[in-house]
Amino acid sequence: MNHAQLIIKEYYDVSDGQLVIGKLPITEIVRRHETPFYLYSPEVFRMKIRKVTRALPGFEIYYSVKANPAPDVIQIIMDEGCGLNVATRGELILACKCNCPPGKIILAGAGKTEKELDAGIVTGVCEIHVESIEEIEKLSILAKKHDEKVQVAIRLNPGQVCREGKIVMAEKAAAYGFDEADLGKAAQKIICSENLELCGIHVYFGTQILNKELLLGCYEYAFEMAKQLVSMSGCKLRTIDFSGGFGVPYYSNEKEFAIDEFGQQLGPIIKQVQKHEGLSQARLVIEPGRYLLSEGGLYVTRVIGQKSSYGRQFIIVDGGMHHHLAASGNLGHVIKRNFPIVVANRLVGDKTHKYDITGRQCSALDTLAREVELPTVETGDILVFFQSGAYARSASPLGFRSHPVPPELIAENGTVRLMESQIINDSFQDAPLGSNSKLGEQRNVN
Q1: Among the four given CATH numbers 2.40.37.10, 3.40.50.2300, 3.40.1260.10, 3.30.365.10, the one describing domain 3-40+294-420
Q2: pTM of the full predicted structure?
């Protein structure tokens, strides 16, 4: 059973040889909505969220909005009791528009502007996570201007490396967070400000980690750093934030992250933390994005042509890398490998062939798959790219070559509807923060 078949078996249905999403066959969805488009399954999103909450019952989930900022998606996640992790004023406005209580919003991101810090204070987010001494100084001035006591956590650039992460920001110079050697200095800077209160530590080890033993070691390390911060500052911490890190298998050689086993092995460590005087009241926070959404999203395209060149077979689809940069291998990948792909209207075929799948751009980068093995493909067939719920639309150059922007659809219980797709443009950035922006309103995180 290949990677795509495993995803279908776990999360989707098949009827008459067709992929079924939300109780609708793919041909019916394509009949109602022209390709290309992004298609989401709320049912799969909920399955993944509940899987995390069962495996990690002592943790609070703060969804990383950058993974997919669509308001409908955010609402589904909020309805499951999750908070939101935002990094920009635009994401904060989105959170407010979705009526997320300020006490369920964390503002954490590198290079926050004064406007963004100010927005975090005015909105009354539960915590602001700081990255530099200069940012602490700016935040202190703004908090004093608003006569607010702002809860602050220190983001740490740790000395321990997660080597399986696709993007690693550890044990090396980074624009993100404080070096371990500067942890005490940052803590004292916060403590000396009458308008700031040190409440926690935020540790980022990397992303796309599939090895549970590796991540377990990182969590142990984070606990030790939290203890050190308590010792340095004399403060009792209210938050230990482990960021994200849970990986999802995009490629055939990758296996799913064993989150149930991970949660079981974390048990003894959590008990030690609960016994520590300075950490016993700390909430344990995680900020997953792709882990919650990847399997629940599909990128749906139609084959518009085929050709042969120097012995290789090419399929041209009506989408491309401008819609799904990650699938093209141009989003931080050195080795380009294929996402799970199926001919969704004909899942079973007698013969298979190797194809290169390209889009409509005049660029060698616009290759969505290389020598992928599929049943015989015909013009008009529907190709579906799995693992597209996160960092597909949100991380792609949608405006390249002025092609139309694909819509986002939700399929559930036999219906399919068009979503409100959110583009963060200049006018959106200048929008008011909304009804959630009352000072101090709902700031209690409990």
Answers
A1: 2.40.37.10
A2: 0.92
